[in-house]
Amino acid sequence: MRAFQFVELQKPAELRELPVPEPGPGEVLIKIGGAGACHSDLHILETPANTPGMSLPFTLGHENAGWVEKLGSGATGFAVGDPVIVYGPWGCGSCANCRVGMENYCESPVKSRAGGLGRDGGMANYMIVPSTRFLLPLGSLDPREAAPLTDAALTSYHAVKRSLHLLGPGSTAVVIGAGGLGQMAIQVLKALSAAATVIAVDTSPDKLETAKKMGADEVLLSGDGAVKRIKDITRGQGANLVLDMVGAKPTLETAAQISRVLGHVTIVGLGGGALPVNFHSPAKECSVASPYWGSIPELMEVVSLAQAGKIRMLVQQFPLERASEAYHLLHDGKIPGRAVIIPND
Ligand SMILES: [Zn+2]
Ligand SMILES: [Zn+2]
Q1: Which ligand gives the minimal distance to the CA of 153?
Q2: Whose CB among 112, 177, 193, 221 lies 3.0–4.6 Å from 246's, allowing a Cys bridge?
Q3: What is the pLDDT of residues 74-129, one digit of tens each?
Q4: Phi, psi of 324 (to 5 degrees)
Q5: Are 265 and 288 in contact (CB under 8 A)?
Q6: What is the β-pairing status of strands 315-319 and 287-289?
Q7: C-alpha 294 to ligand 2 mean position (Å)
Q8: Measuring CA to CA, how many Å separate 227 from each of 58, 200, 222, 231?
Q9: pTM for the predicted model, two decimal places
Q10: Interatomic CA distance for residues 129 and 108, integer angstroms
Q11: Of 134, 124, 125, 147, which is closest to residue 59 (Cα–Cα)?
Protein backbone atom coordinates (compact mmCIF):
# COMPACT_ATOMS: atom_id res chain seq x y z
CA MET A 1 0.00 0.00 0.00
CA ARG A 2 1.00 3.63 -0.18
CA ALA A 3 1.29 5.94 2.83
CA PHE A 4 2.02 9.65 3.25
CA GLN A 5 4.70 9.62 5.92
CA PHE A 6 6.56 12.01 8.15
CA VAL A 7 10.10 10.69 7.67
CA GLU A 8 12.49 13.29 9.03
CA LEU A 9 12.11 16.31 11.33
CA GLN A 10 11.68 19.60 9.44
CA LYS A 11 11.43 17.78 6.09
CA PRO A 12 8.23 17.61 4.01
CA ALA A 13 6.24 14.38 4.36
CA GLU A 14 6.69 11.77 1.59
CA LEU A 15 4.60 9.17 -0.19
CA ARG A 16 6.10 5.72 0.48
CA GLU A 17 5.35 2.07 -0.33
CA LEU A 18 4.63 -0.13 2.70
CA PRO A 19 3.17 -3.59 3.32
CA VAL A 20 -0.50 -3.69 4.39
CA PRO A 21 -0.33 -4.11 8.19
CA GLU A 22 -1.80 -7.19 9.86
CA PRO A 23 -4.14 -6.53 12.86
CA GLY A 24 -2.84 -8.10 16.09
CA PRO A 25 -5.04 -9.35 18.97
CA GLY A 26 -7.86 -6.85 19.68
CA GLU A 27 -6.80 -4.60 16.79
CA VAL A 28 -8.77 -3.66 13.67
CA LEU A 29 -7.56 -2.97 10.14
CA ILE A 30 -9.48 -0.07 8.58
CA LYS A 31 -9.69 0.62 4.86
CA ILE A 32 -9.47 4.40 4.79
CA GLY A 33 -12.32 6.36 3.20
CA GLY A 34 -11.03 9.81 4.12
CA ALA A 35 -8.21 11.29 6.20
CA GLY A 36 -8.44 14.99 7.03
CA ALA A 37 -5.43 17.30 6.70
CA CYS A 38 -5.23 19.26 9.94
CA HIS A 39 -3.38 22.46 10.76
CA SER A 40 -1.68 20.73 13.66
CA ASP A 41 0.14 18.47 11.16
CA LEU A 42 1.88 21.60 9.85
CA HIS A 43 3.15 22.24 13.39
CA ILE A 44 4.32 18.62 13.70
CA LEU A 45 6.19 18.86 10.41
CA GLU A 46 8.01 21.91 11.77
CA THR A 47 9.08 20.18 15.00
CA PRO A 48 12.64 21.33 15.81
CA ALA A 49 15.24 18.80 14.69
CA ASN A 50 16.54 18.07 18.23
CA THR A 51 13.12 17.27 19.81
CA PRO A 52 13.41 14.10 21.93
CA GLY A 53 10.75 11.38 21.91
CA MET A 54 9.73 11.73 18.27
CA SER A 55 9.79 8.26 16.76
CA LEU A 56 9.98 8.40 12.97
CA PRO A 57 8.80 7.54 10.41
CA PHE A 58 5.02 7.44 10.88
CA THR A 59 2.03 7.94 8.60
CA LEU A 60 0.21 11.28 8.96
CA GLY A 61 -3.57 11.59 9.32
CA HIS A 62 -5.30 11.76 12.74
CA GLU A 63 -8.79 12.53 11.40
CA ASN A 64 -9.95 9.26 9.89
CA ALA A 65 -13.00 7.36 8.72
CA GLY A 66 -13.37 4.26 6.58
CA TRP A 67 -14.61 0.68 6.57
CA VAL A 68 -13.68 -2.29 8.74
CA GLU A 69 -11.39 -4.47 6.58
CA LYS A 70 -10.19 -7.12 9.03
CA LEU A 71 -10.65 -7.85 12.75
CA GLY A 72 -7.73 -9.13 14.83
CA SER A 73 -8.36 -12.08 17.14
CA GLY A 74 -10.73 -11.16 19.97
CA ALA A 75 -11.87 -7.87 18.37
CA THR A 76 -15.66 -7.86 18.40
CA GLY A 77 -18.63 -5.55 17.94
CA PHE A 78 -18.04 -4.71 14.28
CA ALA A 79 -18.28 -6.63 11.02
CA VAL A 80 -16.14 -6.45 7.90
CA GLY A 81 -17.45 -3.66 5.66
CA ASP A 82 -19.00 -1.57 8.45
CA PRO A 83 -18.52 2.20 7.87
CA VAL A 84 -16.78 3.62 10.93
CA ILE A 85 -15.18 6.79 12.23
CA VAL A 86 -12.00 6.57 14.30
CA TYR A 87 -11.76 8.40 17.63
CA GLY A 88 -8.34 10.05 17.43
CA PRO A 89 -6.63 10.40 20.83
CA TRP A 90 -5.72 6.89 21.93
CA GLY A 91 -5.23 6.65 25.69
CA CYS A 92 -4.39 3.78 28.04
CA GLY A 93 -8.06 2.89 28.58
CA SER A 94 -7.66 2.35 32.31
CA CYS A 95 -6.83 5.69 33.99
CA ALA A 96 -9.61 7.81 35.53
CA ASN A 97 -9.97 10.08 32.48
CA CYS A 98 -9.91 7.24 29.95
CA ARG A 99 -12.60 5.39 31.92
CA VAL A 100 -15.07 8.23 31.34
CA GLY A 101 -14.20 8.41 27.65
CA MET A 102 -11.82 11.37 27.93
CA GLU A 103 -8.87 9.58 26.36
CA ASN A 104 -7.77 12.99 25.08
CA TYR A 105 -6.70 13.62 28.69
CA CYS A 106 -5.16 10.19 29.39
CA GLU A 107 -2.97 10.35 32.47
CA SER A 108 -0.38 8.05 30.93
CA PRO A 109 1.29 10.06 28.18
CA VAL A 110 3.77 7.26 27.51
CA LYS A 111 0.97 4.93 26.48
CA SER A 112 -1.20 7.59 24.84
CA ARG A 113 -0.28 8.25 21.26
CA ALA A 114 -2.77 8.99 18.52
CA GLY A 115 -2.55 7.47 15.07
CA GLY A 116 -1.11 10.17 12.83
CA LEU A 117 0.47 11.95 15.81
CA GLY A 118 3.39 9.69 16.68
CA ARG A 119 2.25 6.36 15.28
CA ASP A 120 0.78 5.39 11.91
CA GLY A 121 -2.36 7.32 10.94
CA GLY A 122 -4.83 7.27 8.08
CA MET A 123 -3.11 8.87 5.09
CA ALA A 124 -2.63 5.43 3.62
CA ASN A 125 -4.81 2.77 2.02
CA TYR A 126 -5.13 1.03 5.40
CA MET A 127 -4.47 1.77 9.06
CA ILE A 128 -4.43 -0.24 12.27
CA VAL A 129 -6.69 0.92 15.12
CA PRO A 130 -5.55 -0.62 18.43
CA SER A 131 -9.02 -1.27 19.88
CA THR A 132 -12.67 -1.33 18.82
CA ARG A 133 -13.38 1.19 21.61
CA PHE A 134 -11.94 3.84 19.23
CA LEU A 135 -14.49 3.00 16.49
CA LEU A 136 -17.98 4.45 16.17
CA PRO A 137 -20.50 3.29 13.57
CA LEU A 138 -21.21 5.93 10.90
CA GLY A 139 -24.58 4.56 9.80
CA SER A 140 -25.69 6.38 6.67
CA LEU A 141 -22.74 8.82 6.64
CA ASP A 142 -20.06 8.46 3.95
CA PRO A 143 -16.54 8.01 5.43
CA ARG A 144 -15.10 10.15 2.61
CA GLU A 145 -17.17 13.09 3.83
CA ALA A 146 -17.37 12.26 7.53
CA ALA A 147 -13.66 12.11 8.45
CA PRO A 148 -13.49 15.76 9.71
CA LEU A 149 -16.16 14.98 12.30
CA THR A 150 -13.55 13.26 14.44
CA ASP A 151 -11.24 16.25 14.86
CA ALA A 152 -12.46 19.53 13.33
CA ALA A 153 -16.02 18.92 14.54
CA LEU A 154 -15.21 17.15 17.81
CA THR A 155 -12.70 19.83 18.87
CA SER A 156 -15.21 22.60 18.12
CA TYR A 157 -18.03 20.65 19.76
CA HIS A 158 -16.13 20.15 23.00
CA ALA A 159 -15.12 23.83 23.08
CA VAL A 160 -18.76 24.89 22.78
CA LYS A 161 -20.28 22.25 25.04
CA ARG A 162 -18.17 23.07 28.10
CA SER A 163 -19.58 26.63 28.02
CA LEU A 164 -23.22 25.86 27.14
CA HIS A 165 -24.46 27.02 30.55
CA LEU A 166 -23.38 30.57 29.61
CA LEU A 167 -25.37 30.63 26.38
CA GLY A 168 -28.98 31.26 27.37
CA PRO A 169 -31.39 33.80 25.81
CA GLY A 170 -29.78 37.22 25.37
CA SER A 171 -26.26 35.77 25.38
CA THR A 172 -23.56 36.28 22.76
CA ALA A 173 -20.89 33.91 21.46
CA VAL A 174 -18.06 35.18 19.26
CA VAL A 175 -16.07 32.85 17.00
CA ILE A 176 -12.73 34.35 15.95
CA GLY A 177 -11.46 32.65 12.80
CA ALA A 178 -14.00 31.26 10.33
CA GLY A 179 -11.90 28.49 8.72
CA GLY A 180 -12.84 24.80 9.01
CA LEU A 181 -13.03 24.69 12.81
CA GLY A 182 -14.72 28.08 13.08
CA GLN A 183 -17.40 27.10 10.57
CA MET A 184 -18.06 23.97 12.59
CA ALA A 185 -18.18 25.92 15.87
CA ILE A 186 -20.81 28.26 14.40
CA GLN A 187 -23.01 25.32 13.39
CA VAL A 188 -22.59 23.61 16.75
CA LEU A 189 -23.48 26.85 18.56
CA LYS A 190 -26.65 27.22 16.48
CA ALA A 191 -27.57 23.54 17.00
CA LEU A 192 -26.97 23.42 20.78
CA SER A 193 -27.84 26.96 21.75
CA ALA A 194 -30.28 28.51 19.31
CA ALA A 195 -31.04 31.35 21.75
CA ALA A 196 -27.53 32.81 21.65
CA THR A 197 -26.41 35.43 19.14
CA VAL A 198 -23.44 34.04 17.18
CA ILE A 199 -20.89 36.47 15.75
CA ALA A 200 -18.02 35.43 13.45
CA VAL A 201 -14.86 37.52 13.10
CA ASP A 202 -12.23 36.93 10.39
CA THR A 203 -9.77 38.80 8.16
CA SER A 204 -11.19 37.16 5.03
CA PRO A 205 -14.49 38.41 3.49
CA ASP A 206 -14.86 35.03 1.72
CA LYS A 207 -14.67 33.10 4.97
CA LEU A 208 -17.18 35.50 6.53
CA GLU A 209 -19.53 34.83 3.62
CA THR A 210 -19.26 31.10 4.40
CA ALA A 211 -19.75 31.82 8.11
CA LYS A 212 -23.04 33.52 7.28
CA LYS A 213 -24.17 30.47 5.29
CA MET A 214 -23.24 28.27 8.27
CA GLY A 215 -25.62 30.26 10.46
CA ALA A 216 -23.66 33.18 11.99
CA ASP A 217 -26.09 35.95 12.97
CA GLU A 218 -23.52 38.64 12.28
CA VAL A 219 -20.10 38.59 10.57
CA LEU A 220 -17.38 41.19 11.17
CA LEU A 221 -14.01 41.90 9.59
CA SER A 222 -11.23 41.77 12.21
CA GLY A 223 -10.13 45.08 13.71
CA ASP A 224 -11.20 47.91 16.00
CA GLY A 225 -14.55 48.14 14.22
CA ALA A 226 -15.35 44.55 15.16
CA VAL A 227 -14.50 45.16 18.83
CA LYS A 228 -16.69 48.26 18.92
CA ARG A 229 -19.59 46.50 17.19
CA ILE A 230 -19.43 43.55 19.64
CA LYS A 231 -19.45 46.00 22.55
CA ASP A 232 -22.53 47.68 21.02
CA ILE A 233 -24.38 44.39 20.45
CA THR A 234 -23.68 43.30 24.04
CA ARG A 235 -24.63 46.68 25.55
CA GLY A 236 -21.04 47.25 26.60
CA GLN A 237 -20.78 43.95 28.50
CA GLY A 238 -18.78 41.84 26.05
CA ALA A 239 -19.42 38.29 24.85
CA ASN A 240 -20.37 35.44 27.22
CA LEU A 241 -18.16 33.07 25.23
CA VAL A 242 -15.23 33.92 22.97
CA LEU A 243 -13.82 31.02 20.95
CA ASP A 244 -10.44 31.87 19.46
CA MET A 245 -9.93 29.34 16.67
CA VAL A 246 -6.64 31.03 15.66
CA GLY A 247 -4.73 31.59 18.92
CA ALA A 248 -2.32 34.17 17.51
CA LYS A 249 -1.30 37.41 19.27
CA PRO A 250 -3.79 39.73 17.49
CA THR A 251 -6.76 37.35 17.86
CA LEU A 252 -6.00 36.80 21.55
CA GLU A 253 -5.85 40.57 22.06
CA THR A 254 -9.28 40.84 20.44
CA ALA A 255 -10.57 38.00 22.63
CA ALA A 256 -9.42 39.83 25.78
CA GLN A 257 -11.02 43.10 24.63
CA ILE A 258 -14.43 41.52 24.02
CA SER A 259 -14.47 39.25 27.09
CA ARG A 260 -17.19 39.63 29.69
CA VAL A 261 -17.30 39.44 33.49
CA LEU A 262 -17.80 35.74 34.42
CA GLY A 263 -17.46 34.79 30.75
CA HIS A 264 -15.24 32.23 29.04
CA VAL A 265 -12.36 32.81 26.63
CA THR A 266 -11.49 29.49 25.02
CA ILE A 267 -8.34 29.17 22.95
CA VAL A 268 -8.66 26.43 20.36
CA GLY A 269 -6.17 27.51 17.67
CA LEU A 270 -2.47 26.70 17.95
CA GLY A 271 -1.37 30.05 16.56
CA GLY A 272 1.49 30.40 19.02
CA GLY A 273 0.22 33.50 20.85
CA ALA A 274 -0.15 33.90 24.61
CA LEU A 275 -2.89 35.69 26.55
CA PRO A 276 -1.79 37.70 29.59
CA VAL A 277 -4.23 37.16 32.48
CA ASN A 278 -4.38 39.59 35.42
CA PHE A 279 -6.84 41.68 37.43
CA HIS A 280 -7.58 43.99 34.49
CA SER A 281 -7.72 41.64 31.52
CA PRO A 282 -9.59 39.64 30.38
CA ALA A 283 -12.74 40.81 32.23
CA LYS A 284 -13.17 40.05 35.96
CA GLU A 285 -13.54 36.36 36.81
CA CYS A 286 -13.49 35.44 33.14
CA SER A 287 -12.17 31.89 32.74
CA VAL A 288 -9.52 31.14 30.14
CA ALA A 289 -9.13 27.59 28.86
CA SER A 290 -7.19 25.83 26.15
CA PRO A 291 -8.97 22.51 25.60
CA TYR A 292 -7.56 19.64 23.57
CA TRP A 293 -9.81 17.59 21.26
CA GLY A 294 -12.91 15.93 22.86
CA SER A 295 -14.21 12.73 24.46
CA ILE A 296 -15.63 9.51 22.99
CA PRO A 297 -19.20 10.29 24.23
CA GLU A 298 -18.90 13.73 22.62
CA LEU A 299 -17.88 12.13 19.32
CA MET A 300 -21.05 10.02 19.55
CA GLU A 301 -23.04 13.26 19.88
CA VAL A 302 -21.17 14.84 16.95
CA VAL A 303 -21.98 11.84 14.74
CA SER A 304 -25.65 12.13 15.79
CA LEU A 305 -25.71 15.82 14.87
CA ALA A 306 -24.23 15.04 11.45
CA GLN A 307 -26.68 12.19 10.90
CA ALA A 308 -29.51 14.63 11.70
CA GLY A 309 -28.12 17.04 9.07
CA LYS A 310 -27.44 19.77 11.65
CA ILE A 311 -23.71 20.10 10.99
CA ARG A 312 -21.74 19.66 7.80
CA MET A 313 -18.17 20.34 6.79
CA LEU A 314 -17.11 21.89 3.50
CA VAL A 315 -14.85 19.11 2.24
CA GLN A 316 -12.33 19.40 -0.57
CA GLN A 317 -11.10 15.95 -1.61
CA PHE A 318 -7.56 15.10 -2.75
CA PRO A 319 -6.17 11.73 -3.90
CA LEU A 320 -3.23 10.42 -1.87
CA GLU A 321 -0.66 11.49 -4.48
CA ARG A 322 -1.79 15.10 -4.02
CA ALA A 323 -1.49 15.08 -0.21
CA SER A 324 1.51 17.42 -0.14
CA GLU A 325 -0.33 19.86 -2.41
CA ALA A 326 -3.25 19.80 0.06
CA TYR A 327 -0.88 20.75 2.90
CA HIS A 328 0.62 23.57 0.83
CA LEU A 329 -2.85 24.98 0.17
CA LEU A 330 -3.69 24.59 3.87
CA HIS A 331 -0.48 26.38 4.84
CA ASP A 332 -1.36 29.26 2.49
CA GLY A 333 -4.92 29.55 3.87
CA LYS A 334 -6.46 28.42 0.57
CA ILE A 335 -8.64 25.57 1.87
CA PRO A 336 -12.11 27.02 2.53
CA GLY A 337 -13.24 24.18 4.85
CA ARG A 338 -11.30 20.94 5.30
CA ALA A 339 -8.95 19.13 2.90
CA VAL A 340 -9.60 15.39 3.03
CA ILE A 341 -7.20 12.86 1.52
CA ILE A 342 -8.97 9.97 -0.23
CA PRO A 343 -6.48 7.07 -0.49
CA ASN A 344 -8.88 4.52 -2.03
CA ASP A 345 -11.34 5.43 -4.77
ZN1 LIG B 1 -6.05 17.96 14.25
ZN1 LIG C 1 -5.51 6.76 30.21
Answers
A1: 1
A2: 177
A3: 999 999 999 999 999 999 999 999 999 999 999 986 666 789 998 999 999 999 99
A4: -65, -35
A5: yes
A6: unpaired
A7: 14
A8: 43, 12, 8, 6
A9: 0.96
A10: 18
A11: 124
